[in-house]
Design brief:
It is a single chain. Helix content is 7%, strand content 43%. It has 157 residues and is mostly beta strands. It has a single domain (16-137), classed as 3-layer Sandwich (Rieske Iron-sulfur Protein). Strands 3-13-12-6-5-4 form a 6-stranded antiparallel beta sheet. The protein has a 5-stranded antiparallel beta sheet with strand order 7-8-9-10-11, with no helix packed on it. A two-stranded antiparallel ribbon has the order 1-2. A hairpin with a 6-residue loop joins β8 and β9. The longest helix has 7 residues, at 23-29. It is globular, with a radius of gyration of 17 Å. The protein binds FE2/S2 (inorganic) cluster (FES). Residues 17-131 form the Rieske domain. Keywords: 2Fe-2S, Acetylation, Iron, Iron-sulfur, Metal-binding, Phosphoprotein, Repeat. GO terms for molecular function: 2 iron, 2 sulfur cluster binding; metal ion binding.
Amino acid sequence: MDPDGSEQDPETKIYSSVCVGREEDIKKSERMTAVVHDREVVIFYHRGEYHAMDIRCYHSGGPLHLGEIEEFDGRPCIVCPWHKYKITLATGEGLYQSINPNDPSAKPKWCSKGIKQRIHTVTVDNGNIYVTLSNEPFKCDSDFYATGVFKVIQSSS
Ligand code: FES
């Protein structure tokens, strides 16, 4: 049993959902932080939707809970306060602008580096917010700051 009262299966990495707070509170603050199974996450409430992701930026560990939310190419992103990387709230993709060097008149286009920040699942039940950690088996860049020696919250087991 985890100290937060939830259970985790270490073999299959299937995580139980963990209650992180009240819906009425996050609707006021529009963001909150939590530790879920020893992993630090940030939960955003933006335009009626909830999004949870690893709290440390995939680039260099910046504190995403202190960033601003802005739209790029119609996609809401958290902008990391350290070096201004843009990460989509819905998918965790890193966005950047590129230009075709063979066409100097072309306008810069928004492009995706792919999924860089691990996204977790948020559910609401009876006014409570729950986060379920992603168990997607791919290696995500933000895992580096959420696990191992760079992890801020050390395992209690
Ligand atoms: Fe986030 Fe560099 S640490 S952009």
